[in-house]
């Protein structure tokens, strides 16, 4: 069991479909003790989801836009666990105006909110909890690959995720001397509440399944479990010299430039190319 005895704080469990729920479930199966966080109205949903985990973890309060919540969270984690080995940051939100093809007209207020919740929160969480990682530790954030591409519809959330990747590198720089690793896991599309908030998510989901060499399904247990397994490995001691890194769990989608040519069209395309070749 790769997380035997590890004490982990897992944010971002909303429903049993949440990526963080799958990570929490697998982490427990791998021997970890887990605390969750939630806030405000989603709290009751998180508590209901927590009851589906075994044992049901306690849910601590954390609204990442409330600066007072971070020291209170650190104190609560210290009281429960004494020390901490790892944290999963699985938090993102962007208002409607920041998504869905409105990039050129999005107002600053919407961008600010998206950045605060989805990007700056990683720094806040890592710096609040680092003092509890007295034996070193691992901070893992969930990303959607954005450092090199502009995606349809993802808009300012894409910019926030690109900045999240930069934040990972700066945190890795500053927390490395304390033996705290900071890495991002870039997942392919998974059907969750946050994903439903992205207009046109279905379009991305369909494309992904066709292009990823290893295959991908936003509702496939194999894809969700691949993300959970990799997150657990990143939280474990099995990647001791990896930090500031972006690890993709996307079925290999990023590695190929376009969907494959369907096998039944390949022979016709080869014949057409041969026919167009100049004679001799
Ligand atoms: N679903 C996907 O396709 C996908 C792909 C790659 C990365 N991700 C990332 O995974 C992470 C988890 O998302 P998910 O897809 O599991 O969806 P989800 O809706 O289950 O989780 C999003 C979480 O963010 C939390 N949150 C929002 N505002 C918050 C605030 N102010 N304070 C504290 N928590 C807040 C919500 O309560 C929720 O638990 C996000 O960072 C998301 O961008 C998702």
Provide tags for this entry.
Rossmann fold; about 280 residues; 9 helices; binds nicotinamide-adenine-dinucleotide; alpha/beta; 7 strands
Q: Can you characterise this structure?
A:
The N and C termini lie far apart (65 Å). The chain has a single domain, classed as Rossmann fold, CATH 3.40.50.720. Strands 3-2-1-4-5-6-7 form a 7-stranded parallel β-sheet, sandwiched between helices. By secondary structure, it is an alpha/beta fold. The longest helix has 22 residues. It contains 9 helices and 7 strands. Helix 1 packs across helix 8 and helix 4 packs parallel to helix 5. Helices cover 42% and strands 13% of the residues. The site of nicotinamide-adenine-dinucleotide has 29 residues, from helix 1, strand 5 and helix 6.
What is the number of independent domains?
1
Pattern of helices and strands:
EHEHEHEHEHEHHHEH
CATH architecture: 3-Layer(aba) Sandwich
What is the approximate shape?
globular
